[in-house]
Write a structure and sequence with these properties.
The protein is built from 8 helices and 6 strands, in the order E-H-E-H-E-H-E-H-E-H-E-H-H-H.
Length: 179
């Protein structure tokens, strides 16, 4: 079962929380693997944390990659463990790839992930809740697939190129007409 995340290796992304959740979920999901894609100032710290938690055999830190769509397609679940997040492009990309999402209920995450419909929101800094979400979704492929489908529909309806053009057209029209 492959959990993935893409992002800058920075403290605000709270990868400590994700590592704790992976550590906690391993007993229930022995096949669990985490693919962590990205570079940043916390890389050495995270390598040490991975070692401290005994996760070397199940956490792969890929560094910077250019094949994100291929990686997203290989994930069973996308997880965002951030303490703060704007509108996350990586979550939107995962949703567009029909990958189920678990994200902390912070910032823009609550605007793009509808709990139980397009993904699962968990309390920030709550490893137990994140473990439960990962384990539950690892055991329920139908629910994961449904969340991924709904997530794709949401992205198409709200963040596609055609939607953006339509929104700009409405904006320009309202400015020109004063309506």
């Amino acid at each position: 079962f492959v959990v993935g995340t893409v992002g800058r290796l920075d403290a605000v992304k709270n990868f400590d929380l994700l590592f704790k959740a992976i550590h906690g979920a391993r007993s229930a999901v022995p096949s669990l693997r985490l693919i962590l894609v990205g570079e940043g100032p916390c890389r050495d710290y995270l390598l040490e944390k991975r070692s401290q938690l005994g996760l070397e055999d199940c956490v792969v830190m890929t560094g910077l990659r250019r094949d994100i769509p291929d990686l997203l397609a290989s994930f069973d679940l996308y997880v965002c463990s951030s303490d703060y997040e704007g509108i996350s492009l990586s979550i939107l990309e995962a949703m567009a790839a029909r990958t189920a999402v678990v994200a902390t209920a912070v910032g823009g995450n609550v605007e793009i992930v509808s709990h139980g419909r397009t993904g699962v929101l968990v309390k920030p800094k709550d490893a137990g809740e994140m473990v439960a979400a990962i384990v539950d979704l690892s055991r329920d492929s139908k629910r994961r697939i449904q969340l991924g489908r709904e997530a794709r529909i949401f992205v198409e309806q709200n963040f596609s190129l055609s939607q953006m053009i339509e929104s700009y057209d409405r904006l320009y029209h309202s400015v020109l007409t004063g309506q």
